[in-house]
Amino acid sequence: MNETKSVYATYGGNSYLFGGNAPYVEEMYENYLANPGSVPDSWREYFDALQHVPAVDGSNARDVPHLPVINAFAERAKQGGTQVVVASGADSELGRKRTAVQQLIAAYRNVGARWADLDPLKRTERADIPELDPAFYGFTGADMETVFNTSNTFFGKETMSLRDLLNALRETYCGTIGAEYMYITDQGQKRWWQQRLESARTNPHLDAEQKKHVLERLTAAEGLERFLHTKYVGQKRFSLEGGESFIVAMDELIQKAGTAGVQEIVIGMAHRGRLNVLVNTLGKMPSMLFAEFDHTAPEDLPAGDVKYHQGFSSDVSTAGGPVHLSLAFNPSHLEIVNPVVEGSVRARLDRRGDHEGDTVLPVLVHGDAAFAGQGVVMETLALAQTRGYYTGGTVHIVINNQIGFTTSDPRDTRSTLYCTDVVKMIEAPVLHVNGDDPEAVVLCMQLALQYRQEFNQDVVVDIVCYRKLGHNEQDTPMLTQPLMYTKIGKHPGTRRLYGEKLVAQGVLGDTGPDDMVAAYRAAMDAGKHTFDPVLTNFKSKYAVDWQPFLNQKWTDAGETSIPLAEWKRLAERITTVPEGFTVHTLVKKVLEDRAAMGRGEINVDWGMGEHMAFASLVASGYPIRLSGEDVGRGTFVHRHAVLHDQKREKWDVGTYVPLQHVTDGQAPFEVFDSILSEEAVLGFEYGYASNDPNTLVIWEAQFGDFVNGAQVLIDQFIASGEVKWGRVNGLTLMLPHGYEGQGPEHSSARLERFMQLAADTNMQVVQPTTASQIFHVLRRQMIRPLRKPLVIMTPKSLLRNKDATSPVAEFTKGGFQTVIADKADLKADKVKRVIACSGKVYYDLAKKREEKGVDDVAILRVEQLYPFPHKAFAAEIKKYPNATEIVWCQDEPQNQGAWFFVQHYIHENMLAGQKLGYAGRAASASPAVGYAHLHQEQQKALIDAAFGRLKGFVLQK
């Protein structure tokens, strides 16, 4: 012991400078190389000086060999005047122990969480982890009072006995908080966590008033559930009982976020505890909730939704100023709301011009089984640090009730140690915390927010708790979890435990906790709050006014054509590249052709029509956000919105986006090549559009069938969000669709699914066939004050089909045509059959009619399939009074495409005596055949059938 103290004295208490300590010197040098600021000043000075000593090989490499460094210190020790002792045999053993101390500290930082006291039910024994036992490193009881220098290895005192250090490590990493962060690559972030956790020993240091407030929040959380359980017996509410500390967590997060400069918080969560959050966090009046239970709430939506899916928003007061809270509407698909929240946050950040993410905070609340089990979690995490989807870091909270869904055994809910392990893919730190220690929960929320605001990274707080009741209030969990629920039945509850703790500490009198319970019950009986931070008259300048977009007429399309002079000006701007910028020869040809189109020298193709729609919109003040896989170039190499310099590849200088340089003061044009995800990216864009009606938000599928991977978003949000929740949304989907012999996976965008979901005028489904049509429909989506999802079945082969091009006159006059009349030179009274179709098949039909010289068949193109254009379609049918047959022709199999959904619309507009028939592929379980020759045979057969004799007509009027 005396020898140890003398060594400290010889070198300022920093370390041992003697030759036997090679491992310690080497590790210190490794730390210096990784981060010079991580070692004490005296060490850094020595290592800095060594950097100027030439390396053995004469290079200037920073990573010099370690042995010369160690020898250099040993040599210094032999020199007089340094007061450093050269190691003896005993010193060598002391050096080994010093290294072992560092290994012990590292072990607790890495796996200490596995010894943490996290389970309120205490169902599992402590894991056997030898690395956390000092004996594993050769320490004995005789070493416990040995003092070691910890100034550079453990935050706290500069020197500690092994006993004190071990206690500090266990208090920090094995108490009611288990921290995981050592997998983080960034040294600064790791040191941040070490300093925050170890200097405080995971002690929140709350004063008496703060402790009373924590108990009040626990009382509110438990009190609401108990009230509902007795007043509305057996009704589903997905109780939070057993996880009441979550309300404490939300309160702390919101209040500290406001102090940190956050002005908006967007929350996404499933149904567990949602009613509690609505009342006790967002400030929904209890009387409003009770009215929903009593079925006396106003029913002002066509469909509506259950109360535990409803969203809500409010403004609350914090020490830092007002904070706007938004709880996103969410179906029962649990984690599917995650990307929707992130997109909503990005829209709010863009509106504020906040590129760091400091003012708007996304908060995602997860269940343990869903967090580990649902793929959209991973997809959303993968968006976190990408350019187009960055939101400044998300605070994730897991309500970990240690049971999956209804009857799952925990062994069957995941294949990972923790339900949060998926976040390690983005190196997000995790704080596991025992829900029965609400003060520890408070500390975790403080640390999580501080980390997020400091580093703009995701962070997770895993509140380990339990679920007192079944999956819902009609479930009996004892059927499948008898032992677990025996323990739960004996658990007194977090509120009671914490109340007793405060009484024992003298913070409250003996009746204090019960007085809180009585006060909350009285407030519930009156339908009022006991604690209400809601601001009723606050209005943020960043709030969006949706009133102009409500109750608008479908028929008002607005003026979508543009003047010829503006057409030419815009065309010149988007076909000009900066001087010295070298485009690929193929792209150069595209730009030259587009310039000629702009001058009216040749007809306009699809890519130019789309570009001119974008250019005219941003020039008029409408921002555009386009995302998806390969959207910058375009999957079919038709777009070229982003040009790449062939001599430079850096993104900051090697790319040029002409649509960002249309005119001075234009609106933003953003185009983002997304990660290889459909579900999360589409959810993100839906969330973005739901919070910005003034931006044209477009998601494009690489192939139309890829939308399969996002079907939940389409079913639960895009198609039904307005009738369930009243959420108006103008998101546009571009889905390449067309039968060109590319097989079952790259032919169909599943048009039939959208048609089946189309009702209550909930969306627009169009299939444009010309360049001018895509121009007008994109402009219409923004110019008319109607915000409905727009689903565009975009073409593939038509992108370069000259027959699908349009003259400039069709852009400077007219608008989107829901039905395109037959342009052939036909005598109307001679027409016997009218073929109605949609999409690419029109060109095959027109070619066949020309080849056969048919003059008694008219062909109509239905460009808008929903809402069906009854007036326009009926007007075209009336042009042919002698036509006795109407035939619907489509590329898709009979059970797919639009046939089953348009036949009744067509029948409604037919003339008396007319019959309706079908020409197309037979019903099929697969969208298309995979053999080219069979595709050609089928295509020829359906075109021939459209002009020939049909087997039968399905409807007659």
UniProtKB/TrEMBL annotation:
Gene name, Swiss-Prot/TrEMBL: sucA
Cellular component terms per the entry's GO annotation: cytosol; oxoglutarate dehydrogenase complex
PANTHER family: 2-OXOADIPATE DEHYDROGENASE COMPLEX COMPONENT E1 (PTHR23152:SF4), 2-OXOGLUTARATE DEHYDROGENASE (PTHR23152)
Pfam families, alphabetized: 2-oxogl_dehyd_N (PF16078), E1_dh (PF00676), OxoGdeHyase_C (PF16870), Transket_pyr (PF02779)
Function: E1 component of the 2-oxoglutarate dehydrogenase (OGDH) complex which catalyzes the decarboxylation of 2-oxoglutarate, the first step in the conversion of 2-oxoglutarate to succinyl-CoA and CO(2).
Catalytic activity: N(6)-[(R)-lipoyl]-L-lysyl-[protein] + 2-oxoglutarate + H(+) = N(6)-[(R)-S(8)-succinyldihydrolipoyl]-L-lysyl-[protein] + CO2
NCBIfam families: 2oxo_dh_E1, PRK09404.1, PRK12270.1
Taxon lineage: Bacteria, Pseudomonadati, Pseudomonadota, Betaproteobacteria, Burkholderiales
Cofactors that this protein relies on: thiamine diphosphate
GO molecular function (one): thiamine pyrophosphate binding
EC number(s) given by UniProt: 1.2.4.2
Family: Belongs to the alpha-ketoglutarate dehydrogenase family.
Official protein name in the record: 2-oxoglutarate dehydrogenase E1 component
Keyword Oxidoreductase set for record: yes
Subunit structure: Homodimer. Part of the 2-oxoglutarate dehydrogenase (OGDH) complex composed of E1 (2-oxoglutarate dehydrogenase), E2 (dihydrolipoamide succinyltransferase) and E3 (dihydrolipoamide dehydrogenase); the complex contains multiple copies of the three enzymatic components (E1, E2 and E3).
Oxidoreductase in keyword set: yes
Domain of life: Bacteria
GO BP annotations listed: glycolytic process; tricarboxylic acid cycle
Start and end residues of each Transketolase-like pyrimidine-binding domain: 604-801
Swiss-Prot/TrEMBL keywords: Glycolysis, Oxidoreductase, Thiamine pyrophosphate
